[in-house]
Amino acid sequence: MGMNLFKTTAAVAALAIMATGAAQAGEDAKLVINGDLSIATQAAAPAHLENLETVYSGWVFRTKETQALEMDDFDNPSFVFVDVALDLYAAVDGTEGKSCASCHENVEDFAGLTTSMPRVNADGALETTTDLINECRTERMGAKAWKYSGTDMSAMLSLVGLQSRGMPVNVAIDGAAAPYWDKGKELYYTRVGQLDMSCSNCHEDNYNVMIRADHLSQGQSNGFPTYRLKNAKMNTIQARFKGCMKNIRAEPFGQGSDEFKALELYVASRGNGLIVETPSVRN
Amino acid sequence: MKLLITTAVTAVIASTVAFAGTTAPGDVAFKDGAVAVSLTGAAGNAADGRAVFADRKLGNCLACHVNSEMPEQSFQGQVGPPLDGAADRWSEAQLRGIVSNSKNTFEGTIMPAFYVDAGFTRPLGKFEGKTILSAQQVEDVVAYLLTLK
Q1: Taking the model in full, what pTM does it have?
Q2: Looking at the DSSP assignment, which residues form a beta bridge with residue A43?
């Protein structure tokens, strides 16, 4: 039977879909926040990405209505959580009687941090912004660590990430980061779960295609944490990884596990050059 | 009348035999991607197969395929080719092979194998050692696909 023929037909069909998909989602739509912050939603793919020429923010693939919510901070539900984080920032907690503000007077000082996270610390360990914040809580405030992807942490990550909004993602992948990056890359391309799929099967091979009711994006992390209309809260990047793994009936790695940290680094590196949109809005 | 009863009895016997003769996932014989023999030993039910096809927890075939025979289903995915006319392109044995394990027909495909129960990496606990569809459901889907002409 003409199997090759069918492959070709599928490929042609896929191309046709790409064209219509682009029209629907408005790949040409421009992201301007609050009328003055212009954010490029695509960039030339970083050199290490062999199979993509252009990288796109997930914003590009959302409906016009969802896109609009991110274009004004008054409409963006994330800002409810940013406000919660501002209160947390000023609140004394723990045995040392300190708040974040006791030591970090201006939250604006975190500008640029999110663009380079995760990163390798002086001890050679890969650390996420979440790790840094919890380290301050447990070692400097005498407070309990926040739940890795819980409400307090996702709110604080949104506030810290907001300080880098408009700046290009630029995580390091070489030197001390290389072994972690290799591990993350391997995880990204490994098929898992009863549905036996890898991240790349959906987010590299089929981005801009409809999978039932969902318009597949490249699964980029430049908007995280992201407010999802689906669950009406801030979602951390690792919570998203968990959701995608469960959808393909795979046992997710733990929040804060070595595997998810490595994957977080690798996914961030696929978006090197994209602009931080935190806190973003998705469906 | 007598004849009808006999037929019914025979059918009952046939389906019992078929149940006993269900092929285990590891024993399915593929030849060039196709599976010649029914996994249950009997023909499937196309109406049941239509429901399995659309069910998000079972076939969820619409996640990736357009099927214009189901216009009532509003969200139809486009990861794979439309299945309109599938029965004109593929034989029953080929369709059974594609539904059971399409990797034997399309190398490296994203399409899940619906009748494989082993060899997965990190399957979620409750799905471990299980197939996505039962032998009966595979046969029902095949019977349904055969109506797509």
Answers
A1: 0.92
A2: A55
